[in-house]
Amino acid sequence: MSDARNSILTKLRTTRDAHPLTPPASDFAPIEAKVWPPEERLPRIRRLMEAVHTEFIDAAEADWPAVLREFLAREGVESLLYAPETEAGKRLVEGWGTVSPSPPRGEGRGEGEASHDSPEGSAMYPPHPNPLPGGEREFEGMGEGPTLIPYDRPLEDLKPQLFESIEAGFTTTRGAIAETGSLILWPTAEEPRTLSLVPHIHIALLRADALYDTFLQAMREQRWADGMPTNALLVSGPSKTADIEQTLAYGVHGPKRLVVLVVHP
Amino acid sequence: MDGNAPDFAAASRAALADPQLRGNFRRAMDGLMSKRAAQFADAGEWHAVRALAASVRLRALSKLPELLEKLEENCTRNGITVHWAATTEEANGIALDILHRVDARLVVKGKSMVTEEMHLNAVLEKNGIEVLESDLGEYIVQLDGTMPSHIIMPAIHLNTKQIAHLFKRKIKDAESREDAAYLTDLARRVLRAKFQAADVGMSGVNAAVAETGTLCLIENEGNGRMCTTVPPVHIAFMGLEKVVEKLEDVPPVISLLPRSATGQPITTYVNMISGPRKDGEKDGPREVHLIILDNGRSSIYADPELRDTLRCIRCGACMNHCPVYTKVGGHAYEAPYPGPIGKILVPQIEGLDKRGAMPHACTMCNACVEICPVKIPIVEIMGRLRVEAVKPGGAVKDGGAKASRAEAMVWSGWAAMNASPTAYRVATLAMSKLGNAAPSSLPMLKEWTNVRTKPRFAGRTLHDLARAKGVPDV
Ligand code: SF4
């Protein structure tokens, strides 16, 4: 190891031992004391995140893929990048064909439960091809609505599409935090980190029963210290800046929109 | 003052004469102060979490060498390559070696105050490497060819109009529109192409966790995530004090930093990096390097009083509340760290010979101490540095260079006088009786009377008058 390393550490050790420092005990009680009744957590998260332009849609376990598909179609979003090997990714594909043809419900964003039942029953869409170069099928014969694009290759082979054409990315979360209104993202080999970073819209699936009071509580209960992934994240809204004369502007480098898909059990 | 030492007094005079600049700062600081105050409306919570955050930082300092070794061990286990640099030259050399090895042409950077300290951009440019700041404020400042005027809000000295003109001049096809949303989107388009093409991404570190080998970065824009995720190589820079012991120590720091800095409950992103791309993972850099910089910090650490300087979590709140900073702005300091923290940190890093004026640019109003989220006794340290500047053979770099025995005696006498009620009473009585006769060329009065008329001392002291009104002595 380098000379710098040894001389720095030796100096720190010698001078610290000459003047030891006794720190006061760390009392985490003020953070542990931050608790909300379970039924207040989701409304609080929603309020805090909506205040920074996050959008919410609600769905049930049975129909969330269809609800998402409908939302994206309504918003005119044409491509959704997803993680094909995750449970949620598989569900997304399964549920994608079954759509509710009910007409758009207008600007119901953040209005709580929406009804997704279709009076006319479900319509089947053709299986979606992989439109990327090397994808198995051709980009033809698609039904209307967004195309699902699997994140099935290394970033290097996806960069141009990721930066230039794909509009939305879909990820799961490991829950959300009531104190600050934050989603916990835990990227994996199956669910890459750029899914939630590069596309202009990030859709995050949040299970309504995975809510925590504080960041501290979440990391303790999920035992983070036992093993961290290469990248873990808290995300509390779409990308924003106030660097130009303190004026808030959204979508500076990361996603311009963050949409939380709340799945109720 | 030596020839190339920054002249704070002259720079301040120029800043004070610029009404545009003063207006930009005043507006921004007022906004930041009131947003911060709203976040700490619950005084009990503020005091308790603040005590916790201070204890986290003090515990880290109490075990600093051990924690740095542990950080190195755990980072290495996670696949992060750890480098140590005693000086900024060494740190620049390490970074250049990595860049040359991977044949880097384009570097994108997230916010890092340590690299400002290193003047890294200039070094890279001299070596033919294009380097782009990607935090919007830093990008603006880089286009403008100046330096950040605030550690959190680098372009706070400019208004929308000035930025619109700058973009029009420097960015191809830019329209001349004084609209923050348009300007932000313009920067997004320019920088996205750079993120995609960059060979190396660079960042700072807000806290490094020894227990897990994790680098924590907080930000709102997503440029930090871009720099640490998209390019094939990530180089992170940290001052050696940035380590914390445990992962659980992160929440208290994360809780106070954004609330103190900008009055937000949390930043948009808390980015925790514990290694490069693993086998089977589809993205993330293939190499992650951590460069740990000393640059005088181990000397600051050696002194049990000055050591408290290293608690700092770089929230910038002390700037926003400083009556001097808010008037003269960040550029007057001509230093990587302006404001109260700069006034105590920069002289210790760069030496009192060059930076002797900084600890004097303070009214000792104590506002910074009251809002500092980790309770750094900034004003006490400032006083200590004033003594060190005139005391031969002191603990601080280039201390005593301008040793004037008279001034040293006066400062230590002043300290002793204030520590003893009797001495204080005698002294104030003496001033009220004899002060008006003191010539304005006395060492203590000289700097003051250069620009002001000597105050007239009242015939009776305030204590005296209060006592006469029946207020008991405290
Ligand atoms: S000295 Fe305190 S208030 Fe100033 S930047 Fe550091 S932590 Fe913030």
If you had to describe this structure to a student in words, what would you say it looks like?
The complex is a heterodimer of chains A (265) and B (474). Chain A is of the alpha/beta class. Chain A has a domain at 47-102 and 131-240: Rossmann fold (3-Layer(aba) Sandwich). Chain A is built from seven helices and twelve strands. In chain A, strand 2 (79-82), helix 5 and strand 3 (147-150) form a beta-alpha-beta unit. In chain A, helix 4 crosses helix 5. Chain A starts with a helix and ends with a strand. Residues 99-129 and 135-142 of chain A have low confidence and may be disordered. In chain B, strands 1-10-7-4-2-3 form a six-stranded parallel beta sheet, with helices on both faces. In chain B, strands 8-5-6-9 form a four-stranded mixed beta sheet, sandwiched between helices. Chain B has helices at residues 8-16, 19-39, 43-62, 64-78, 88-101, 113-118, 120-126, 136-144, 160-170, 180-197, 223-229, 250-262, 297-302, 317-320, 325-328, 339-350, 352-355, 367-371, 378-390, 405-419, 421-434, 443-451, 462-468, and strands at residues 80-85, 106-109, 130-133, 200-203, 207-209, 214-219, 233-239, 243-244, 269-273, 287-293. Helices cover 51% and strands 10% of the residues of chain B. Chain B has 23 helices and ten strands. Among the domains of chain B are: 40-295, Rossmann fold (3-Layer(aba) Sandwich); 405-468, no CATH class. In chain B, helix 2 crosses helix 12 (250-262), helix 3 packs across helix 12 and helix 20 packs across helix 21. Chain B has 474 residues and is of the alpha/beta class. In chain B, a hairpin with a 4-residue loop joins strand 5 (207-209) and strand 6. At the A-B interface, helix 1, helix 2, helix 6, helix 7 and strand 9 of A face helix 2, helix 3, helix 4, strand 1 and helix 8 of B. The structure holds iron/sulfur cluster (SF4). Residues 312-318, 340-341, 372-374, 376, 378 of chain B line the site of iron/sulfur cluster (SF4).
